[in-house]
Amino acid sequence: MVAESGEQAADPAVATVTVLNTAHQALGRDRWAPRVLAAERRRPCTEQEAARFQTVQRALRQALPRIREEVSDIAAQAWPLMRARWQPGWRAGSSSRSLSSASNGVSK
Question: Which of 4, 84, 101, 104 gives a 20 to 30 Å CA spacing to 92?
């Protein structure tokens, strides 16, 4: 658990915290976890990560139509970390535009 100040919050139920990257490699553990997590959240996505994220987002929007707005909000948080070719014109607040109809550089 990470406190607002970036310090690790004490929780007796948590014995160990490990931060993994998208390839499931351990990046940091315990006292280093908050710093590593913050750095990983700022790291731009690779092409493979962006493609996988786009595929998952599209599948979620189709499979879970009742929560499309929430799925779109999650996607909006990721766009700043995407390379330009993966960034659609769609942004948070304009969720009426379908994520799948946005220009994303992926050809079917």
Answer: 4
Q: Show the domain range for 74.
A: 47-101
pLDDT of residue 89: 58
What is the CA 58 to chain-centroid distance, rounded?
Answer: 14
Specify the DSSP class assigned to residue 7: S
> What distance in Å separates the CA atoms of residue 2 and residue 30, rounded to the nearest whole number?
11
Residue 37 has pLDDT above 50, yes or no: yes
pTM for this prediction: 0.56
Q: Is 8 left (phi over 0), alpha (psi -120 to 50) or beta?
A: beta
User: How many independent structural domains does the chain possess?
Assistant: 2
Question: Do 56 and 33 belong together in one domain?
Answer: no
